[in-house]
Amino acid sequence: MTEVAHDAQPQAQPPAQHAPEAADTVELLGLVAHLQHVAFNRLAEDARVAPTTAQQLELSRLAAAAVDRRDRVLARVVELGGEPERCLGAYARLLEDFDSRTQPSTWWERLLRSYVADGVSDDFCRIAASAVDDRSRALLLEVLDDAAHANLAVGELEAAGAQDEVLVSRLALWGRRLVGEALGVVQQAMSAHPALGRLVTRREAEARAAAEEPAAAAAAPAAEAAVAEADGAAPAKLFGELTAEHTRRMSRLGLTA
Questions:
Q1: Residue 52: what are its φ and ψ, rounded to 5°?
Q2: Using an 8 Å Cβ cutoff, are 250 and 257 in contact?
């Protein structure tokens, strides 16, 4: 009887703290899936209005690739117990204001808008991804490291700018406006989705803890202090990193940020 009762005991469950961490990961996965969904629609529209057949073909291929990346991310959402439709729906209106305030008037402005907006959003997601589980992080980094569209935009914009100094000046101004709007979207996303802010803070706290010497200093009081410091420092550091990466991307185009 004793043996039967012992066998009937439930198996040990994972620590409770894993549940909120998984939920935060699902929030980030939902954001990345949404951004890929938006990229598909935008690339399909770009393909429709592209000035050459070669550009139309390339952009349509990139749109198809965005669908594949979106679905791979959503598959991971399902593995973690999330609902794909809810994840996408949670961000449905995130880019409405950005889109309405940054309507391009030329093909070159359209290319630069995608280059800047995708760059800022991808950089943010990479930073947040550093605080999720290894499997999710590997998937996210693979998805976010696809540079095919950025390379296309750089090639087109560099070629156009080499022949038109006035265009270069106009695009530099356009880029400054775009990055301000894109950083505003990041701030809005973190405000509306606290899980994203927690991931950024966790990343900063882990970096601080890793820098502690000796390792024994990471006792409970020290760890709590590191989290508190990270919570205050994370936003400023985050936007500093995003701005620095934007400057690097604009330099690649020969444009001042």
A1: -125, 155
A2: yes
Residue 96 CB burial class (10 angstroms; 0-12, 13-18, ≥19):
exposed
Quote the pTM value.
0.84
Q: How many CB atoms lie within 10 A of CB 251?
A: 11
Listed residue (80, 127, 96) closest to 34, CA to CA: 96
Cβ 108 vs Cβ 160: under 8 Å = yes
Distance CA 83, CA 193 (A): 16
Alpha helix positions (H), 80-211: 84-89, 96-101, 107-129, 134-144, 148-161, 165-192, 194-211
Computed on alpha carbons and rounded to an integer, the radius of gyration of the chain in Å comes to 22
Largest CA distance in the chain: 88
Identity at 241, one-letter amino acid code? E
Torsion of CA 171, 176, 178, 184, to 10 degrees: 180
pLDDT tens for the chain, 257 residues long, are: 444 444 444 443 333 335 678 999 999 999 999 999 999 999 999 999 999 999 999 999 999 999 999 999 999 999 999 999 999 999 999 999 999 999 999 999 999 999 999 999 999 999 999 999 999 999 999 999 989 999 999 999 999 999 999 999 999 999 999 999 999 999 999 999 999 999 999 988 877 777 665 554 455 555 454 444 545 556 789 999 999 999 999 999 988 87
Cα 202 to Cα 127: distance, rounded to the nearest angstrom: 10
Task: Say if CB 161 and CB 253 are below 8 A apart.
Answer: yes
